[in-house]
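Input record, target 12 of the design panel.
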């Protein structure tokens, strides 16, 4: 009887050891599969968040990216309507009649919102990541095809259309999915360096 009981105990112990060994072998694979599943869920949630509808006063903001002056009076229509009146410039986009500033200088939106950059004049929208300051921009990094354009890719998250190939008066709309304070500059080097043409987009959670 005693031998039988002892034999049964040994069998139970052996079975438990095998089960434990199997558990150790299976657990990492199961954990890895669960982690991959969670990662996929996070990616799906993030993709869903990027396309979720946003409403309210912080869903959208507008920045005037350059503007045309009115003092003294400026007639862009006459410049494009021959025969030109006396003393009317032939160029409807003279650089000396453009206000090289972002107005307002700073806007605030919520994460996932957008900013409409209403571009008036020969300007180039460049946006840099959270925390970037004007002094961090390498204004000497020039575009090899057009030296007047700044081409500093460090922490740059958006580069707008080439101003040489599109109308001077246009709109570019940019989405900001993450919180932070983003630097926006005019990539036309004299406008940024000489006229301090820059501003900020503050994105709340």
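The sequence produced for target 12 reads:
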């Amino acid at each position: 009887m005693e031998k039988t009981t002892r034999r049964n105990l040994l069998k139970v112990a052996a079975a438990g050891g095998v089960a434990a060994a199997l558990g150790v072998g299976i657990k990492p694979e199961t954990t890895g599969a669960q982690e991959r599943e969670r990662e996929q869920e996070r990616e799906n949630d993030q993709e869903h968040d990027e396309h979720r509808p946003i409403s309210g006063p912080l869903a959208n903001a507008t920045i005037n990216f350059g503007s045309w002056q009115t003092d003294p009076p400026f007639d862009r229509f006459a410049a494009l309507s021959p025969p030109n009146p006396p003393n009317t410039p032939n160029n409807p986009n003279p650089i000396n009649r453009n206000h090289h500033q972002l107005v307002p200088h700073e806007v605030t939106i919520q994460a996932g919102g957008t900013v409409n950059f209403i571009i008036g004049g020969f300007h180039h929208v460049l946006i840099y990541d959270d925390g970037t300051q004007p002094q961090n921009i390498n204004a000497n990094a020039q575009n090899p095809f057009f030296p007047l354009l700044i081409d500093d890719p460090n922490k740059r998250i958006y580069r707008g259309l080439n101003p040489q190939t599109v109308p001077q008066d246009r709109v570019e709309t940019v989405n900001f999915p993450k919180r932070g304070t983003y630097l926006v500059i005019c990539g036309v080097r004299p406008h940024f360096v000489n006229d301090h043409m820059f501003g900020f987009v503050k994105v709340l959670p």
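DSSP finds three helices and eleven strands in the chain.
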